[in-house]
């Protein structure tokens, strides 16, 4: 399969053709791949002295480098994106939950015989609390309640519909001419 050095193609087989390599981020020796190194440099990794990296398109989609109108800027070799995201409160639209409630306090209609609320009910003054059983309930008091947390923190899969194929890069072939 002929190609231009540095050219990347999708290849549907389970092997890479002669003179081509998988785009899986492998480090390659500069000494045996000087032409490809002169095109890629260390854009995709390597130390630039003995090795350089091939692009890693395993599990990724390619995006054009640069910036189009209204689009984000992508530098050559920039890796971005994730396959799933756990949504946090800050990611959700501002909203409210209407909650209402009432507190009903059991009470004793006569004077209390205790000065402690522990284990007792509200009474009609004297010592304020009673050890007697309640015989009435105070007037309901409207109360603002807080909604408890809900959810399971399960990440949301944001992978677009895809099919597994191999990206291959031409290692040896025709050297591209510059304009």
Automatic annotation (TrEMBL):
Gene3D superfamilies: Phage tail collar domain
Residue span, Phage tail collar domain: 6-61
Superkingdom as given in the UniProt entry: Bacteria
The name this protein goes by in its record: Microcystin-dependent protein
